[in-house]
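Contributing new complexes? Match this layout with prephenic acid.
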Amino acid sequence: MKIAIQGIAGAFHEEAARLRFSHEPIEIVPCLTFRELAAAVASGLADKGIMAIENTISGTIQHNLELIREQQLWISDEVIMRIRQHLGGVPGSSLQSIRKVYSHYMALNQCRPFFEAYPEVELIESEDTALSIRDVAIAGSTEMAAIGSALAIARNGLIVLGKEIEASKQNYTRFLILDRLPQTPTACNKASISLVLKSDPEAFTQAMALLHNWNIHLAKIESMTIPGQPWHYRYYLDLRSESEGQLAELLADIESLAVSIQLLGKYTAHTL
Ligand SMILES: O=C(O)C(=O)C[C@]1(C(=O)O)C=C[C@@H](O)C=C1
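Output block (do not edit by hand):
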């Protein structure tokens, strides 16, 4: 099975894919951007995709919710993985010699407090952690370092300058498994939807009351601006319920309040 990931081999996406599909042979399809990843699944180039959606330190990647909706992908599962960020430099480098540190922006955001003690270090965004580590190894400069996994650092012959430098040990990333077509899960207790409500000021309160009526738990909500419609929002909701029937009833009820509602996936919730 071909799995599209964001990043090259050695990126956290690869680790998460191997964790989720540990019982079957998989072929990794590397994609440099999240947009490329979504397109690989939508076009059938990959059978499935795995996409980071939120991290417990650096937050939600809202843009990925938009990509899933726009490309009409289906969320069929989620994976939660502990992320340990290490700082890697070439042999001979040290925390005193480095001036530029490269990584994926989500990884940089997980580690910013560590660098407060090193004001001479510039943090620079790159496509992914593994690529940054490879590029530092190729450049061979003691002024450069990169943030990523212990595995990628070792594979590229770098040394660890900082171990587990994330701002909190409670550092988890939640990844979504994406399919081209809707799947019918044997069991599920979570649904993700995109919702635009009518411009009635009461609509949001009424929608929340419906959740309460159907005993549905709101696990997560994101609101995003809609280009061309100032002060009007699209909501992305993760809903939890032990009853699939109640979820279906809720979606039918909410339709009367909505301009648009889209089911993005149904799956089983994972917890720590
Ligand atoms: O650059 C990588 O290694 C990735 O897989 C990307 C990514 C992300 O998108 O959040 C994955 C997990 C970590 O939170 C940091 C970076």
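Reviewers usually confirm one structural detail per submission. For this one: The mean pLDDT is 96.
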